[in-house]
Design brief:
The chain has about 325 residues and is of the alpha/beta class. The chain has eleven helices and seven strands.
């Protein structure tokens, strides 16, 4: 399969030249998107890079990593590339791993492949503790909103996607800032695309990162909550309606009734010499127990209901027919 690479650039400078040098000859196109970089990385590459595969695209205004990737993806779709890889310009991702990253797609196992920094014990020893904590929190929220519960590092930006699947996405709707990676997974789940991960080492040098995990937790929470609600409505009430849908519908009012009823009577009897009657306790406890059982049953269905058939193979069969 023919491979194109997209490199979004903001405050990259000369580091991106080393990244380009390390991209193997199995890659046929390299799209570097200068996202209004204050260090003028794009101009630096034009002046000093002689690699004929490189094409530099300039943004007049900063659009964020998501905006840069949308521009790069659109350019890659105009080529004959079968796979489009995203790699950062700071050198924290090894370009030598691009063939391994693409392998599940080449074999027809997956549609979207991501790096996983948490696969091997000790692989994140070099990651700053604050950043590690932020990644863990953001990763769990992304699992919830995207539905890809099997992913261990969903916010990892080292990715590869089959061009057929990329062409099915509405690129204009993708988040333009740091929420891009999470939003990408949410929209891939809407297509029922298969996502896999590739083990990789976490590399953190002394270079400053423009991402501050604690600063983006709240925006990520809002974005993930919005996507979670959209996914639930679309998956369980529009695209399909199953026993899991009924379990979810029943569990929420049962839990709310039990907690509100029980809370009201607990406040009413607090400090009183009279304990709540057995009937009051059971009326509060039974809906909570039943609602929790239904919710756990739905969650089990959601966790195990991962896509298993590569979408790009199905799209290829449709093209041939």
């Amino acid at each position: 399969m023919r491979v194109a690479v997209v490199i979004p650039c903001f405050r990259a400078g000369e580091r991106v030249l080393k990244v380009i040098e390390r991209v193997g000859r199995d890659v046929e196109w390299i799209f570097l998107v200068d996202d209004a970089c204050p260090e003028k990385t794009g101009e630096l590459v034009v002046a000093r890079c002689t690699d004929p595969r490189v094409r530099v695209i300039f943004h007049a205004e900063n659009q964020g990593v998501g905006g840069a990737m949308v521009t790069g993806y659109a350019a890659a779709l105009e080529t004959d590339a079968d796979i489009v890889v995203k790699i950062d310009a700071d050198g924290q991702m090894a370009p030598e791993l691009i063939p391994a990253l693409c392998r599940p797609i080449v074999k027809g196992i997956s549609d979207y492949s991501k790096g996983n920094r948490f696969h091997m014990s000790g692989s994140v020893d070099s990651m700053p503790a604050l950043r590690l904590f932020g990644n863990v929190v953001l990763s769990f929220m992304t699992k919830l909103s995207s539905g890809y519960w099997q992913l261990f590092d969903p916010t990892n930006g080292f990715t590869a996607i089959h061009a057929r699947v990329l062409g099915e996405l509405n690129l204009s709707k993708l988040s333009k800032r740091y929420f891009f990676e999470s939003d990408m997974l949410f929209r891939l789940n809407g297509l029922r695309a298969v996502v896999t991960e590739m083990p990789m080492k976490a590399v953190y040098d002394d270079e400053p990162s423009s991402l501050r995990p604690l600063q983006v937790v709240w925006p990520f929470m809002k974005g993930n909550l919005r996507n979670f609600l959209k996914r639930i409505v679309r998956r369980y009430f529009i695209a399909d309606f199953s026993m899991a849908s009924i379990e979810l519908v029943l569990s929420i009012p049962l839990l709310l009734f039990g907690m509100i009823y029980g809370g009201y009577h607990w406040i009413e009897n607090h400090g009183s010499a009279h304990a709540a009657s057995a009937g009051v306790v059971m009326t509060a406890a039974l809906p909570i127990i039943l609602g929790m059982q239904l919710l756990l049953s739905w969650l089990n269905y959601d966790v195990t209901g991962q896509p298993v058939h590569a979408l790009h193979l199905q799209l290829g069969e449709l093209e041939e027919s």
